[in-house]
Design goal:
mainly alpha
């Protein structure tokens, strides 16, 4: 009987740990989402992986790629702005189309 209580105590501690860390709540939410899904997916496991994967810490490589993407977007914006300015500057030195036709 003492062995049963020790095992039961460990299970209870583990359950409290899962509850405190938010695991039980997250699993409940994902399972409810699966239950409420009008068209059940072919793979319930893939559904769970997909929905739980969004809440887990990301792979460091993915984070690096996101940072690189953000940098590239900034460089792209700067290049577009520079292009606009250079086109405007160039337009000052080129004769207008109307003036070309008048000659």
């Amino acid at each position: 009987m003492a062995h049963y209580k020790a095992t039961d105590s460990k299970h209870e501690q583990f359950r409290r740990y899962l509850e405190k860390s938010g695991v039980l709540d997250m699993l409940t939410k994902v399972l409810v989402a699966l239950y409420e899904e009008p068209e059940k997916p072919n793979s319930a496991l893939d559904f769970l992986k997909h929905h739980l994967g969004a809440a887990t810490p990301e792979n460091p490589e993915i984070e690096l790629l996101r940072l690189e993407l953000a940098e590239m977007k900034e460089k792209y914006k700067a290049t577009i702005e520079e292009n606009k300015k250079l086109k405007a500057k160039l337009a000052q030195y080129e004769p207008r189309q109307e003036e070309k036709h008048a000659e």
